[in-house]
Amino acid sequence: MSASREKKTRQEKDPSILDPKTAREAAERKKQKRSDRMYAAIFIVFLLVAAIVVTWNSGILQKRATAVTINGEKYTAAEVNYYYSSVYNQFLSSYGSYASMFGLDTSKSLKTQDCAMLEDGGTWFDYFLQQAEDQMVTATALYDAAQEEGFTVDDLDQQIQDNLDSLDESVESLNSSNGTNYDRADYLQMMYGKYMTEDIYKELLTQSLVASYYAQAYQDETEASYTDQQISDAYEEDPNSYDLVDYEQILVSGVAETTTDEDGNTVEPTDEENEAAMAESKTIADELYAKYQAGEGLEALADTEDKASYSDNEGTTYSGDDLTTWLFDEARQDGDSTVIEVDGTGTYILVFHGRYRNDYDVANVRHILIQPESTELSEDDEGHEADVQAKKDAAKAEAEDILAQWKAGAATEDSFIELVKEYSQDTGSVEDGGLIPDISQDSSLVTEFKDWSLDPSRKVGDTGIVESSYGYHIMYLSSFGDPYWMVQVRSNLLTQAVNDWHAEKTEGYEATEGFGIRFVG
Length: 521
Hints:
It is a single chain. By secondary structure, the protein is an alpha+beta fold. The chain folds into 4 domains: 3-58; 66-225, no CATH class; 245-356, Chitinase A, domain 3 (Roll), CATH 3.10.50; 361-482, Roll (Chitinase A, domain 3), CATH 3.10.50.40. 52% of the residues lie in helices and 17% in strands. It is built from 16 helices and 13 strands. The chain has a 4-stranded antiparallel β-sheet. It has a 4-stranded antiparallel β-sheet with strand order 10-9-12-11. A 3-stranded antiparallel β-sheet has the order 2-1-13. α4 packs across α5 (124-149), α5 packs across α8 and α9 crosses α16. The N and C termini lie far apart (88 Å).
């Protein structure tokens, strides 16, 4: 057998034995296959990366990734941002001009600024997110409960539409002021983040409205259920929470004075110096008290000692300290007196004069607010004060004309309400016919408003014009309510009931953060 024939025979028996040419061709084919597979893999990776980039840029991942889960309900970053932005904007609305006093710099990322308002530490982002999650827990729990009980809001669709119409008005005003061309979708994203859509907004608004009306319905029903006997019983159980006392006092300071060293640095008093100051205050107080018991006047006695100060206190509430514990003792009678030491403060001489509760009736008043136009002149401009006064005079004249118009007409409460809707600039009370209910001395109203409303000579149907820092109020006394102490008791009962109800409804509802939380804020 020839050599070539023998080689061919071996190759047929063993295919791995190839001639050099065949081997090279096989190697090239194998190399090409590896290269094809490698390029195919690279192409697939490229497609995956491209898909991820496109998905990321589209916001689909951010929109769909779960940011918070509450009782199995998943919320995306867009939905969490609705609550987060609402909390943040409300804070700025209330404290915007004082934000720096809280340590907040609105020009910087909230995630990089520590917030002292968090007991366990954290950033301002953490602070607002915590509040947002608390609101979400409440909204979710109450919405679920409302659904379970079949609670409905009769005009829900109309309220949602009214809200959208209000948004459109805000957009129109924004465009008009800035020469822009934003639409509703743009405005929603400016308010609640770039992932917000109208559908998401409407869904969250629906949840919020239902939860709010559900809670209000419980509150209204509960408040209306309290009888006068229940209120009286609650008062008798804890009179110290509602009663007030009148008394006089002298305080003899028992705090040692601070000194300065040779370099002008403040030197705090030592414990021994403070103890000596307290002992001295007790000695002085005892001497003054003996003179008071001998018939001298308390105020005049305070003037004889540099460390002593006098005050006449009316309407003091119970706090549980040594002073009010003595003052609110049931055995206390007019003229009772005593000396009480308070460590770190000094020694008090107390003279009790009376204990009582707020028996005056609260007032329910309707008003029309007319505000003066703002002057366009700066304070440095000549004629600034005259222009301000002229605008105030014009507002007062308008208020007088409106009141005269009312008197010349039907002069009823209903006709007053119609004028409220037409003229009042107090947007917070217009929908209620200008009504400010349950006015008491403790109400957070301007003094002029309260003084007119609670004047002892006031009668139902009285009218008048009151000037305050807000402008001119056309007043109408609608009615008197319960004695203020009853209003206080009812309010405390209601607060406790609502808190218990809220705790019951939200039990088991907790916010758990997910991957999407990084897209919030």
